Amino acid sequence: MNYSPGVLSVLPIFYVGWSDSVLSPSEMRAIQAFIEKIPHLSDDDKQLLLLWTDQRHPPSKETFADWAKILQQYAASLDLSERKKLVEIGIEMAKKAASVADQKNWDSAQVRQSIEDFEQKMGLNNALSQQTFYNAIAPHNALEISQEVAFDTAQLQAHLDGSFADLKQRTKTLLADETFRIPTDLRQKDELRQVILEQCRQLARQGLGAYTFPIEYGGSASTGGSTAIFETLAMGNLSLLIKYGVQFGLFGGAVYQLGTQYHHEKYLNALGKLDLAGCFAMTETGHGSNVRDLETTATYDHATRTLVVHSPTETAGKEYIGNALHSQMAAVFCQLVVNGQNHGIHTVLVPLRDEQHTVLEGITIKDCGYKMGLNGVDNGRIWFNQVRVPVQNLLNRYGDIDENGQYQSPIQNPSKRFFTMLGALVGGRVSVALASNTAAKKALDIAIRYALKRRQFKTLSEDQETLLLDYATHQERLFPLLAKSYALTFALETLRQKFVGSTALDDKREVEALAAGLKSYASWHATATIQECREACGGKGYLTENELPDLKADTDIFATFEGDNYVLLQLLAKSILTDFKQEFSDGGYLAIARHLLQRASTKWAETNPFAANNTDAEHLLDPDFHTDALRHREQKLLFTLSDRMRSFMAKKVNPNEIFVRTQTHLVALAMANVERFINEEFLKYLQTLPESPEKAALQTMQQCFALDALHRDRAWFLENDYFGGEKSKAIRKVLEKLYRQIRPDALGYVEAFGIPAVLRNAEIVA
Amino acid sequence: MNYSPGVLSVLPIFYVGWSDSVLSPSEMRAIQAFIEKIPHLSDDDKQLLLLWTDQRHPPSKETFADWAKILQQYAASLDLSERKKLVEIGIEMAKKAASVADQKNWDSAQVRQSIEDFEQKMGLNNALSQQTFYNAIAPHNALEISQEVAFDTAQLQAHLDGSFADLKQRTKTLLADETFRIPTDLRQKDELRQVILEQCRQLARQGLGAYTFPIEYGGSASTGGSTAIFETLAMGNLSLLIKYGVQFGLFGGAVYQLGTQYHHEKYLNALGKLDLAGCFAMTETGHGSNVRDLETTATYDHATRTLVVHSPTETAGKEYIGNALHSQMAAVFCQLVVNGQNHGIHTVLVPLRDEQHTVLEGITIKDCGYKMGLNGVDNGRIWFNQVRVPVQNLLNRYGDIDENGQYQSPIQNPSKRFFTMLGALVGGRVSVALASNTAAKKALDIAIRYALKRRQFKTLSEDQETLLLDYATHQERLFPLLAKSYALTFALETLRQKFVGSTALDDKREVEALAAGLKSYASWHATATIQECREACGGKGYLTENELPDLKADTDIFATFEGDNYVLLQLLAKSILTDFKQEFSDGGYLAIARHLLQRASTKWAETNPFAANNTDAEHLLDPDFHTDALRHREQKLLFTLSDRMRSFMAKKVNPNEIFVRTQTHLVALAMANVERFINEEFLKYLQTLPESPEKAALQTMQQCFALDALHRDRAWFLENDYFGGEKSKAIRKVLEKLYRQIRPDALGYVEAFGIPAVLRNAEIVA
Question: Are A125 and A721 in contact (CB under 8 A)?
């Protein structure tokens, strides 16, 4: 079979295109339209190529075998160690077959451009296609994908680092210091806790502890900076991270946010230096999620101007309290009783130990013992038996007792007061969300680097075993998680900025709702990612020397602390139901039920789904499609939920019971809301960038994130006829292509996380 | 509004039915047909009730409010502490409204029966419906679901225990002994390892170590019994389980299965008593899944009749070897080289230490250090430097060196020989599958008991906070996992029986394929279940005192050892592609490719799916529907996979590359095969049982397992038009009803796991 130079010039592309997969009819049509416009092809050439793209008569086995033969003949003269591009090979083949007169036409830039455009149209302008080609023409000398990354990793890192890049770098430099190394074999909790305490002191000495506080109290007056420090500390030992968070974020945050000048002047300086160690005693054995019903009481005694702090039952004991064994003082959350009246939850500073570190009278402290992880943090249980403290120890920003012994508060509504106090502590959730993503990045960094070193089975070559990352299942396991970590980065940056910038009440409510959702999403992402990475590293992933076991164990509690994820998602759902603004603080189901009833019941306007059967890759990769799909899901979930609730209400079902019955729906709505938000923040960020290889790299991550989100929840989209079965399958196909596109750049993507080698605490990638 | 006695007799059922959810049109039709046939209703009654079931005009808000009013009036005279059934209440209301003459008609058994039948038809004959009713009529005194279990837990346990019930009980009694308690705070690996070693010796003294071996070597000649012991030991400390497995199952199994009489006589007795501690040195740093390419060599020297065992490189070191620090001997897997020719993998017994426990010359052993879990097991690395052993140390059942120094084997084909040797060790996978399910059951036992104790938020009552297990999300998180553990029990029992009974080669192949699939499925089930249970117990689940952290950490490696799950699933898929019989042993992709090409390519006969739009609960709960759906999925995946492979082959794509490209498809096929098998084995078991409350309890588990399987993978069924969106939603609805049906019996379901209280090592449920 002899083909014309024109046909030969695109033959390598045709060969790979057809061997790669079956093209969809709409892809075929797009390709046909393109072929018509290629300038250097003769009409005969075009006719033949069009025939080959006719979906009713795809190239026969014989034709395909002919192509293979031609390419293999050409390959005989090819130096296989030099990896030419498909376009290059096509042009060379054309030149060989061309007449002398015709030769120089094949050197024209325009010709090359048109073939390159065609390659791109076919989605084959990537290293994987090149590899497929070489494997086909020389199967026993299969080449591996080149490790050349298509973008500048430092520039990509700058995008991820955002505005606190310098502070993050400073924190990393500090963490890299010898002081912060901990032997992997140090498993004895008491010893480890001492090391962590000392390291935490070092962080304080560097000014990192007081970072949020005003300058006059030794701080840098930067709340955003403090979240950036926390986010970065998660690259190091996670017990240190949590110890730091407990001392400065929780205990420090309570004194700073719930206290007033008296407390700031008296405590902030010492606290920021860790000269005053304190704990945040909120959770009790009997009450965790339900803070409002804590049992501990602080009863005011006007005669002595003191508060009597007391745990009335065993289950009133404070539980899981970090820093309990090292603290001199606790910020105790308790019911404030004044003149026999309970004014709800308030916070009282209660000294726990004297200067010799002896536990004070009336106080009982027990160690929580070993935990799944975070064994460098001293969690304990604390009970109070009629412990008296001066009334000044009440953190009195939102509620105080005046000189006449009368309770006073700037917020009259007790429920509103409660949620305002809790809202002041939202920084913890913002920080945990950020740290979760850092932990996920660390796991991906290890697993992807290992998959680029570890070989098993001579699958693709007779000479060498195949890299783990060249297996399709391995790509499918790791790349969607990689894309999620990328996407989360930008959403979390937005959260940070909104958190820093929120002053008005409505803004604060929005931040609380956002933080609740992103904390849940990010912490589950961390758990799932670290687990997958551990398994993807096989037995090596099970050894402590490779850090994944500690990463997994230490972060596992992130889904629970700072609010159980299921409870947080219901908070978020409630705020969505009430238009993101009011009532979020209330927590009462009845108010929400009333609000829903007030809103006019409307019929869901089933607009024609956005091209329900369009399976073109171009369409599937289009951000407008992603945005529309994710908005549609959230809106429809919101509508059907409101509708179900209204229908229950019409039947006089108790409002609380309605919430129990629709609980799974509430959680689904909240998750849909978070995912839609993450995608949109990613797109917003991309819109600000000029074209560059780094922007292209980020776009690939966005596409992978969005399509994976649709793919994971495709059941919902199918059930709701947003797209059909063919489109759903097409999404998977496009995802697989994206994985292959990501594969050659995988190392670059994890390098851009900017995790210093010294903090990559894994022998397998050392 | 006054209703007739007839209408009042079914009003409680109507009220709950309509408040519960919106009924589907087909359910409505079924109910209407039923109403027509209720004998004690007048024509007027029927007409009114039919009106209320007309889907076009469901009861109006006003009507519903009327019902509520009537019921609340009646409730005023009701003693709320006595919980009457809906049927009871209906009859009482009817009697109150009836004329004197009519009174006694309401005491007739036939009338009661017809109302009970109607209640059942509506799916409301359960404790949850009763609760709904009481909550509605007296919202502020909401009653909790009664804890009366509907079946006999001991009888249910007997079904789960199966034929080795006595041996399991004996093992539990032993484990319950004081000897086997380990302080939760014992975290120091060297100390813990000593304790575990001593405990393992105790098991050996009780005859549990040698259980598989023939009676003349101190055993009980029961392979099945030995798997039952392993399954049950998983209720105790898992380091002990694995130590036991390494010594008796792996090291013992290698000597027994790969050795001959000489080795049996020399070693089995001492080995079974743990007087000879040994390890199973297969995996190397460089080769885990790919055993065939291990680097360690054993080179025969005829002059001295010795084998020289050698690790040529650093990566040839044996890795993760359990018992490495305590062993006197290793069964070393290595390439056997005789007269310069490599005969492939064989096993050689190599002494590691002398009687003073000093490491012998040429041998280097290093501790693997701390691991995520199983820190009571001494895993280590071992290198050999030209270590000489007598040729008799070759385990020579499948390959030997005769007196003339010539290699001899009963199996000529080296590939077949390799897979026969490996196949002889399949017991390890069977055992790990069984132990995985035990671990999952332990976690469910803890989490469900805790959810029946722990309360949070006064959601359903003003007096008392609500039990975690009464939250819909909590049920949705735990019950499908409970059902999976039930279902797996019967499939694993079948595997055990097939494993014990397999003698012919084809049987063995089938057992290998089954074991590969079930080990993967069960180990992932354990990981997912324990993680979910840990999270479902909140902060308490993070404390080591509540066992979940150790359960999670210790079992996490089950997905990796005895074969990485992804690799095993591909083995299973290959065996399915080749009709479950041939070539499984081969492992070569080319042979499978050829086999596929030989089979006639057929077109997938798209039979009308089994009632694609039937959303009746009766149909959805029908085992025939489950069987059909799960078979359909497997068959279609097999067909489309074969088809894709053939199409690649026609395009001359390298067979190995075809397997890489279709890897995710292979894994999906294997998982579909396993799930179909589990469901069918459950149904087969159920068919053998006469009707009883325990059978009904098992049927509920089967329905929950099967529908959850369809629900989890509903995207596939939707994409492939096996069912439509409405049916998919209906499945979720039926699942939710099943959860509510399971709820009152939840404690009974976990009690039937038969985990002794003393082994329930969790403070929260102590």
Answer: no
